[in-house]
Design goal:
The chain has eight helices and five strands, in the order H-H-E-E-H-H-E-H-E-E-H-H-H. It is of the alpha+beta class. A five-stranded antiparallel beta sheet has the order 2-1-5-4-3, with helices on both faces. Strand 4 and strand 5 form a beta hairpin.
Length: about 240
Amino acid sequence: MVSVSREFADHVADVARLLKEDEVQDEVLRRLTSLGVELVPGSTAAAVTIAMNGGALTFAASDQRLDRLHSLQFGAGEGPVVETLRHNEPRRIDNTVAERRWPAFCRAAADAGFCSCLALPLRTDRQPAGAVALYGQEPDVFRGVAHDVALLFAAQGGTAVRNASLYRACRRMVDNLHVALESRAVIEQAKGILHVQLGVSPGEAFHLLSRYSQNTNQRVRRVSVRLVEGRIAPEDFRPA
């Protein structure tokens, strides 16, 4: 029996703040599987499956046996994780030997040494972004308090996945902005060189850069870099 103390609750709540420690989404997902085994009583293995267009990908698993079990589910289009993603609802197996749903999966899980399974949706913005699947070696391990802890863990896990996705999107936007600013800076340098060397206005200088870009099938930024680095002479931009 797990003791649901304030300390334990705080530990589970920290799942939502994984991003502070693991700023890469891949690492967040791997960390989720480890925490699932650590926090949910009776859990001996865990996997995180991410929903994708046209299918799903089991991205992180704490046990290599789960790779085969998940491949079996998604190959056949049936199983607890498949249904969790499809219906955005939990699915629980208390005993893989006695369970009548998903017979192929249950036989494979039992053969792999897993008697219990609990699949829970990882929700972000009310959508199932993925699912966390917990596996136990003993039957009936995901009942009672263990089930409640697993629900809390999955809710916090969804927040962590959402935070990691937002972080990655923001990081990508900032990186793109840096590239745009660097491109603008080098283009301005190139325009300045043509302005001084050829005596043309800034607008005419950009027109010369654009024309050279089209004639040589190079981006304006690339042409500007080569001009600034001295690999193209200003005279090469004079109108014929």
